[in-house]
């Protein structure tokens, strides 16, 4: 007979999900009410305002899609891409490839700008292809590439899109709450994110936002949006505002309780303070890893603080090490994807998983396991290097 499921206790330091804060878990356990209940509608309005704060935008069309980040991605493309539209898609990792899939599935033409995995999107390459075409409808790129740990220059890329009269579509799944992100100042037209990274809520919700320019594009479509569920013209009857809401779908009530609590925590901490926290613990982790003799796989000027790609030492069995971390320490770190499979580990420092305790546990567990596997590292140095970073901030 199948019995109740009780998951093991884990410390999540992979590419996501991150540890969910007890406040968020507690919020999700509150009594379920109807998705058209006046009290729930009031909370919906608060979620919109909190998302606008987190994204630094006043876009009225800012809401959480009732599905994971991949659905947020599809919501942006299905509303903004029509058959025959030329879309520049930048790929420097796994998730640019998924953007290409979306463009093509909705009848668009993907003009690819490809950069090596582990490097940022080339603004010059994008400019060059824009100069060759006068009918580009949108530029799509990943701000924080989860598969590599690279940050691309969203501000410069969005400025370029404006200069050439096209929209920008931005993947901010891993960047929201972890690094600087400013939708209105940077001129981002459509953006999607996720809740399970730096917001430290469970997976299953995707914040999205659309600019006025994007709304004009949607309103002037020559074809009907091919997805009923993700059609923003329809969903705004439910999320648009005011006390009276048109039924669109049954919202994931308790999951939205959790998102609300996670956003309240971000507001209480302060957006800039959250960015600084991620940067601090990244520095401590980096110094500890390098003192151990490990190498970061991404150049410092484009390196994400919340998603750290670390080169696997020669001779180390990647699955064996990660399994040992999980079994002995309850610690999850991520494997490499695509061309980086077997070459890097991806260590997340996101949201509630971005603390000094997490950094020190990771360094200790990784050092001990590598030594057991006869890894060519320097034992006994990592913790001291990390503590030195923390000591600097105390003075």
TrEMBL record:
GO terms for biological process: glycine biosynthetic process, by transamination of glyoxylate. One of its GO terms (molecular function) is alanine-glyoxylate transaminase activity. Its cofactor is pyridoxal 5'-phosphate. The keyword Transferase applies. Keywords: Aminotransferase, Pyridoxal phosphate, Transferase. Pfam families: Aminotran_5. This is Alanine-glyoxylate aminotransferase. It comes from Marinobacterium halophilum. The lineage of its organism: Bacteria, Pseudomonadati, Pseudomonadota, Gammaproteobacteria, Oceanospirillales.
């Amino acid at each position: 007979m199948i019995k109740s499921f009780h998951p093991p206790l884990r410390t999540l330091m992979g590419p996501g999900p991150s540890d969910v804060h007890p406040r968020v878990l507690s919020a999700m356990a509150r009594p379920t009410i109807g998705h058209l209940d006046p009290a729930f509608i009031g909370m919906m309005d608060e979620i919109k305002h909190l998302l606008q704060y987190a994204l630094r935008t006043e876009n009225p069309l800012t809401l959480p899609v009732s599905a994971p980040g991949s659905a947020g991605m599809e919501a942006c493309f299905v509303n903004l891409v029509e058959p025959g539209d030329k879309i520049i898609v930048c790929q420097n990792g796994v998730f640019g490839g998924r953007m290409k899939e979306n463009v093509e599935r909705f009848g668009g033409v993907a003009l690819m700008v490809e950069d090596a995995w582990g490097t940022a999107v080339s603004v010059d390459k994008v400019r060059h292809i824009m100069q060759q075409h006068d009918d580009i409808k949108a530029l799509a790129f990943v701000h924080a590439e989860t598969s590599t740990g690279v940050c691309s220059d969203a501000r410069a890329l969005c400025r370029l899109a404006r200069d050439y009269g096209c929209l920008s579509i931005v993947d901010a799944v891993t960047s929201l709450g972890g690094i600087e992100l400013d939708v209105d100042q940077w001129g981002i037209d459509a953006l999607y994110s996720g809740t399970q990274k730096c917001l430290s809520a469970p997976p299953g919700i995707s914040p999205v936002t659309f600019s006025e320019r994007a709304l004009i594009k949607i309103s002037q479509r020559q074809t009907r949006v091919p997805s009923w569920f993700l059609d923003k013209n329809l969903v705004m009857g439910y999320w648009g505002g005011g006390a009276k809401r048109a039924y669109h779908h049954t919202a994931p009530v308790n999951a939205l309780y959790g998102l609300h609590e996670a956003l309240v925590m971000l507001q209480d901490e302060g957006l800039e303070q959250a960015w600084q926290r991620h940067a601090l613990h990244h520095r401590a982790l980096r110094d500890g890893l390098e003192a151990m003799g490990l190498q970061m796989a991404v150049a410092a000027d484009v390196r994400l603080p919340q998603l750290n790609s670390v080169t696997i030492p020669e001779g180390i069995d990647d699955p064996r090490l990660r399994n040992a971390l999980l079994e002995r320490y309850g610690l999850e770190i991520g494997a490499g994807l695509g061309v980086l499979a077997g070459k890097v580990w991806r260590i997340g420092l996101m949201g509630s998983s971005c603390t000094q305790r997490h950094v020190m546990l990771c360094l200790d567990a990784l050092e001990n396991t590598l030594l057991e596997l006869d890894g060519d590292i320097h034992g006994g140095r990592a913790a001291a290097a990390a503590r030195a970073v923390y000591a600097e901030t105390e003075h």
